[in-house]
Amino acid sequence: MIRTGRTILLALAVLALLQLVWVVPEAHAHNGIENGQNPFTAWNWNPLATLLLLMAAYLYLNGLANWIRPSHPISRWQRASFFIGLFMIFIALQSPLDNLSEHMLSFHQLQHFLLRMLAPLLVLLGAPLTPMLRGLPLWFLQGFVRPVVKHPLGRATYDKLTNPVITVAVFMGVIYLWQVPGGFNLALRNEFIHAIMHMTMMSSGFLFYWAVIDPAPRRSRVHYGVRVLYLGLIVLPNTFLGAVITFSKGIIYSGYEGVYQPFDMSLLTDQQIGGLVLWVPGDMMSILVAGIVMIMWYEREEAANPSIPPRPPTQTPIETPTETPTQTNRPPN
User: Can you give the residue ranges of every domain in the chain?
Assistant: First the structure.
C-alpha cells in the first residue's frame, strides 16, 4: 500500500514539475477572477505549491516504509491527520480560494486561517519528524541535516525559536504585521510580497504549534499547564484584532476598491465577514487546541502515575477443620 502510494506521488510530482517548466510563465501568474467568470472554476494553475506538497507526502510515506521497527508507531489517525493537513494547504493555495482572496477580504482571511492555524496543527498531529527524516536520501541526511543539527549555532537557534515566549510573539506578530493596511494592500498588488505573506504566516503557525503540540519524538521542557496558558493568552489579541476589523465603519483595505466583486456584496459587508472569520474561528481553534493539550497532559500523568492501584494478590482461604460428631459407647444391655 505504501509502495503504491509512493509511486503515485512520484508520478504526480513529475507531472507538476513538467507543467512548471514547460507551461508559459504568464499562465502561472495570479490573474484573479475575470468579469463574468465562474469564481468556483478559477483554480490557481501554478503547480509549485502542489509539487512541494507531493514531495512532503512522498518523504512521509517513504520514511514510514523505511522505518522497520518504529520506536513510536504512527497510528492511522495520525497519518490521516498529516495528509488532511497537506490537503488544507492545497485548498488554500491551489483552489479557487486563492484567486477569490484577491477580490474579497472574507476569503482572504479564510485562506490565512487554513495556512496559519488549521493546516500546521493537522500536519504536526501526524508526528511527521521521524518519518520525513527517514524518508530523506542518505546523502542529504548525512551531508546536510546531521551537521546542522550537531552544530552549536544550529542548536542555539533551535532553542531560541522554540522558546514559548518567542513562538507566541512571532505567531501574533506576523498576523498583526500583515493585517496593517499598508502591508496587506502591498501584498494584494505584488505577487512576490503575497508569497512572503503566505510563507511567514504558515511558518509562524508551524513554529507555534511545534512548541504546543510537542509531536513525537520531541519532548518539550515546557509544562502542559504553561502551554494551555499560552493558548489562552493569544485569544485576547486575536479577539481585539478581529473586533477592530469587524466593527470598523470605513473601508480599511483600499486594495479591494475598484476590484471586480464576484458576488453581490458591499466592501463593508465583506470586511465585516472577514473580521469575523479572523475573530471567531481563531478563538475557537485556540480553545480546541487547549483541550487537546489537556488530554495529552492527562494521558501523560496517567502513564506516569496510574490512578487505579494494582489489585492485591488473591489469597487462598484457609480451610478450618470441621468437627465430626463423636460416637459414645453405649453400655451393653
Answer: 2-30+40-303
